[in-house]
Amino acid sequence: MADAEIIAVGSELLTPSRIDTNSLWLTDQLNGLGVEVRRKVVVGDDRELLSAVIRQSLKQVDIVILSGGLGPTEDDVTREAVAEALGRPLVFRQDLLDALSERFQRLNRKMADNNRRQTFVVEGAEPLPNGRGTAAGQWIEDDSKVVMLLPGPPHELKAMFTGECLSRLQKKLPAQVIRTRFYRVAGMGESDLDQLISPVYKPYANPATTILAGAGDIQIHLRARAHSEPEAEALLTAVGPPIEELLGDRIYSRNGANIETVIGEQLRARHATLSVAESCTGGLLGDRITSVAGSSDYFVGGFLTYSDAMKTHLLGVDPALLARHTSVSEECAKAMAEGARQRTGSIYAISVTGEAGPQSQSGAPVGTVIIGFAAPDAEAQAKRYVLFGDRNGVRARAAQWALDDLRRRLH
Amino acid sequence: MADAEIIAVGSELLTPSRIDTNSLWLTDQLNGLGVEVRRKVVVGDDRELLSAVIRQSLKQVDIVILSGGLGPTEDDVTREAVAEALGRPLVFRQDLLDALSERFQRLNRKMADNNRRQTFVVEGAEPLPNGRGTAAGQWIEDDSKVVMLLPGPPHELKAMFTGECLSRLQKKLPAQVIRTRFYRVAGMGESDLDQLISPVYKPYANPATTILAGAGDIQIHLRARAHSEPEAEALLTAVGPPIEELLGDRIYSRNGANIETVIGEQLRARHATLSVAESCTGGLLGDRITSVAGSSDYFVGGFLTYSDAMKTHLLGVDPALLARHTSVSEECAKAMAEGARQRTGSIYAISVTGEAGPQSQSGAPVGTVIIGFAAPDAEAQAKRYVLFGDRNGVRARAAQWALDDLRRRLH
Q: Which residues of A31-104 form beta strands (DSSP E)?
């Protein structure tokens, strides 16, 4: 047993506005067990088509997971379709009816007639209790094959898979150990990163390497499978340390923490406080810093100075400086950071000024961003970047680069 | 012809971190033509399995759209799988080779040998030019059926579908007229909205009604199909105007514009300027306002005052007021808005203060948010809300409610 297919059931998943995300979570769980997903299918509430899809899946793989279509209405056809595909009848379960009646009593609601549909299972199935909804799941074995019926709502599906299916699956799968490494990287583009590290990971299928990139934020996942822990660790050693060596301090996290959380830890360790002065990011930098619970311990506040006049008025940036260098200059970024630090009394301050577009106001090319930094007993400093993207892409990268700049300085 | 299936090809789409979103866009396009999607499939780079999936699709529907797997490498198996499923050979096209060679010359790059794979099409296929990449698409007719091969990168796929496939499809489909209405709604939850308007739209399958909800932002789409424009408009009349009546000024946009864009138009029409004072939203409000291109015309700047001390120091909020009412109070929100207005010289100012959690600092329940507003020649005003969600859910709703509060006041 090593391959699986995932079938999501529900006509709403075939509209332009809804997407099946359960399969991503299930894939992660299955991969963790050494099971690969070969195919994912989304079908509507169409018994005949669903049953044809299940039959094809059973020909191709040993594990078939269905999500959704277990509700009480006529539209919910998963039970019937699975029974049909396996050539087994549906049978009534008194224990499911008892559990359902009790649930409705507890919630002080009357059970509708159509909920009775939810008390039938495919003959030979083990019902899987659902603590969070009315739809029981089902675990069905058929020769060497396994079919799982799970409810569609993500919190019900996750709880049922984790609580009921994981241990049953593990028993059926060859014993194996999974060991992972996880790096988060800032300050470089995806293609530059891949060019740098692909010679290290490309030769190895095990560990499997996955790279996931957002705006200036890259995640690298390594996953090794083996029969024993030392063997899995040995496999990781061929790829993990060379990648760490190549990326150096561009790796900002090894435990999944995002960069704003890492900065929070750095500031807390120093008992330091932080303020911001934002121009082109317009609040995004403060938003990211304060998205961390407990950030009021170190973040005092800041200034959104979108116009030159506000840079002067709120932060004390010299109008002559702006006239000479424009607002998109190292001089302005330094003065903004220094102004924020002085006016809030924070230990550190960071500033962002630049051209997010669509038109340049200062004459500097769109994408130009200057990050400033002020600290006690030192001159303020600034760095210039040219960042990629449309208006909101530049803004997102500018905030990310500013956070990374701060992280390196506090390192 | 009325049903379609969409097949996304690529092993990366079977990992936990990648999802096929092309199918959402394609579904929207197909629905617009009156075509329903019956099944969506994701398969890896597996020729045999892909070919079996295509064969099943051709049995079930008249339109099969494949995305991805048209690249130059051995992993790119879509061409071969379609040829196999249709029982036709692949044939070399000199015109595709010429176009490809020219493209590489223009970019001053050497064409790799394996790019030759991209010059083969299924016999009888019409090649579809790709202005944005090396992979040509294919349009294949087989009796009454149509198979489309499109490239995987979304911007290539969209350009090719819009430029090449849409008009070809329209010719094959029965003539029909589509008319739509689109409403964006703020200031109420999804279930409250649905309870209010479902008696209006539920009785009608045509127009089709789709409701899509984000944090405090709801989109309502109506889509009517008919043989003529007056007929389609008549169908919309049964649902659109009653919904407009029920929702009144909760509808903030009828053309898709988001609320920050609507506010921008309101401010521009009044030649007015705006500043913000943010506590619990930490910059998110400013971020949203400045995400609109050209917002520097009306947004001057603002203050992130995360601590009580900063509210006093940067905005002039009276410490005695904070001691008496705490920072999560109408009094504080009004003083913050007034302070921002005075210190920036803007015409209007909005403020947000509240408890985003996880712990309450002021004693007010987590989710409590106060929105303040200051304008010329009037007392500042404030409104209290209790918003739903975890820390970042409350923050997102707080920004949305603040924007909606401003929109109504400027109405």
A: 36-43, 63-67, 90-92
| pLDDT for B73 | 82
| Of the partner residues A56, A289, A304, the one whose CB lies closest to the CB of residue B301 | A304
Please report, rounded to a whole number, the percentage of residues in chain B having pLDDT higher than 90.
Answer: 76
Cβ atoms B162, B30 nearer than 8 A: no
Whether the model clears a pTM of 0.95, i.e. scores above it, the answer is no
- Chain-chain contact of B37 with A24 (C-beta, under 8 angstroms): no
- What's the pLDDT at B214? 76
> Cβ B39–A27 below 8 Å, yes or no?
no
Architecture per CATH, domain A3-172, reads as: 3-Layer(aba) Sandwich (3.40)
Q: How far is A327 from chain B (nearest CA, A)?
A: 14
The β-bridge relationship of strands B217-226 and B177-186 is: antiparallel
Q: Do residue B14 and residue A296 have CB atoms under 8 angstroms apart?
A: no
Taking CA–CA distances from A209, the nearest residue in chain B reads: B15
Distance CA A241, CA B312 (A): 50
Q: Domain A259-409, what fold?
A: Maf protein (3.90.950)
CB-CB under 8 Å, A303 with B303: yes
Options 3.30.70.2860, 3.90.70.10, 3.90.79.10, 3.30.1360.140; which CATH number does A177-253 get? Answer: 3.30.70.2860
Q: Please give the residue of chain B at the shortest CA–CA distance from A284.
A: B287
Q: Which of A25, A282, A289 sits opposite B282 (nearest CB)?
A: A289
Decide if A340 contacts A315 (C-beta within 8 A).
Answer: yes
Query: What is the DSSP-derived secondary structure letter of residue B174?
Result: P
Backbone angles phi, psi at B266, to 5 degrees: -60, -45
Contact yes or no for B234/B242 (Cβ under 8 A):
no
Give the separation between CA A8 and CA B20, rounded to whole angstroms. 14
Which residue stretches of chain B have pLDDT < 70? 1
- Residues near A273 by Cβ (< 8 Å), separated by ≥ 6? A267, A298, A299, A300, A345, A346, A347, A348
The CB-based long-range contact list for A397-400 (8 Å cut-off, 24+ gap) reads A397/A215, A397/A216, A397/A369, A398/A280, A398/A281, A398/A284, A398/A285, A398/A352, A398/A354, A398/A356, A398/A369, A398/A371, A399/A281, A399/A284, A399/A285, A399/A288, A399/A352, A400/A186, A400/A215, A400/A216, A400/A217, A400/A259
Contacts across the A-B interface (CB distance below 8 Å): 210
CA A280, A286, A291 angle in degrees (round to 5)? 135
**Chain segment A211-260, per-residue pLDDT in tens:** 877 778 898 989 898 989 999 999 999 999 999 999 999 999 999 899 99
Residue A4 in tokens? 């699986």
Predicted pLDDT of residue A131: 84
Cα gap B362→B327, rounded to integer Å: 7
Domain boundaries, chain A: 3-172, 177-253, 259-409
Taking 70 as the pLDDT cut, the residues of chain A under it are 1
Q: What local confidence, expressed as pLDDT, does residue B63 receive?
A: 97
**pLDDT, tens digit (0-9, with 9 covering 90-100), for B88-105:** 999 999 999 999 899 888
Between A53, A288, A301, which is nearest B306 by CB? A301
Which pLDDT score is estimated for B190?
76
* pLDDT value, residue B336: 98
Contact yes or no for B295/A357 (Cβ under 8 A): no
Of A17, A28, A53, Cβ closest to residue B16: A28
